Amino acid sequence: MCLIVFDWQPTASRDNGRALLTLSANRDEFFRRDADPMHWWHDAPGVLAGRDLTGGGTWLGVSRDGRFAALTNYRAPSDMQPNAPTRGTLVSAFLAGERVAPLDYLRGVAREGHRYNGFNLLCGDFTRRELGWYGNRANAPPALLDAGVHGLSNSLLNTPWPKLVAQREALCDLIHADERPSLDVLIDTLRDPRIANDEHLPSTGISIERERVLSAAFIETAEYGTRSTTALRVSPAARGLALEIKERSDDDGSHRIVRPGAFERAFGFGIEG
Fold first, then answer.
1. Measured CA distances, 12 to 123, 128, 260 (Å)
2. Which top-level group of life is the source organism from (predicted)?
3. Nearest CA to 234 among 146, 128, 154, 158?
4. Going from the N-terminus, what domains does the chain have, and what CATH number goes with each?
């Protein structure tokens, strides 16, 4: 993933009408890198996620027992290790592995964080009402997140890059107008192709022309761009929690790229506890 905005409300209840998590995320990737759209994994039947067919991991996923994880890369071109392990397996290992508390998992990742190229990792357990973050380029240990609207792009948590600020504010506005905006509205809002003004662009070691292109929430170039958008909501229900997730992708499952993506998959299920 390259852009994630989310509203986290660990005290949400049916009485106060809030969702536990409201999230939308864009995955940006090279078009030549094949991936499967969101599906239930055959080799890990409790995992629902897309799958990167080069590294074998994923960028965002959930599990039937109420776990969640997502990852963004940290943009530092001068710091890239060509033989570093794939980062997407950090997401799939949390979802498919032995169930541990999010903070415990992130602490384990942090002990090996130096082996990887830069990343941000979100891990959550909805039944525990815990959501944690770790960035291996941050001068900070893993931590559980406080309630509120947060964002991740290709820098550290809540770094005020223009597209992150704009999309975080847009999510706040949506939730203010409607406690439960539709997943379609969340997806449509994040697919914004507008670029930022030059004076607001970050300096990350790439050309100004590249910074402009990558400043859009929805990225479009000849070889690289936003490959899919995912919206997720987890809400208190009569018995446990209700999870809704929808993906709009440029791939119908045959690895044939169609721009802009219009292939959709939606899933919903209950989480006990």
1. 18, 12, 35
2. Bacteria
3. 128
4. 3-271 (3.60.60.10)
Give CA–CA dist 131/128, Å, rounded: 9
Peptide bond into 236 cis (omega under 30): no
Q: ω into residue 77 within 30 of 0, thus cis?
A: no
Task: Measure CA of the first residue to CA of the last residue in the chain; give whole Å.
Answer: 29
User: What one-character DSSP code corresponds to residue 220?
Assistant: B
Q: Which two tokens stand for residue 246?
A: 């929808």
pTM, full prediction = 0.96
pLDDT in tens, 151-166: 999 999 999 999 999 9
Whole-Å CA distances, 255 to 30, 53, 135: 13, 10, 31
**Residue 1 scores a pLDDT above 70:** no
Rounded CA separation 70/166 (Å):
20
User: Is the CB of residue 137 less than 8 Å from the CB of residue 156?
Assistant: yes
Contact 50, 83 (CB under 8 A): no
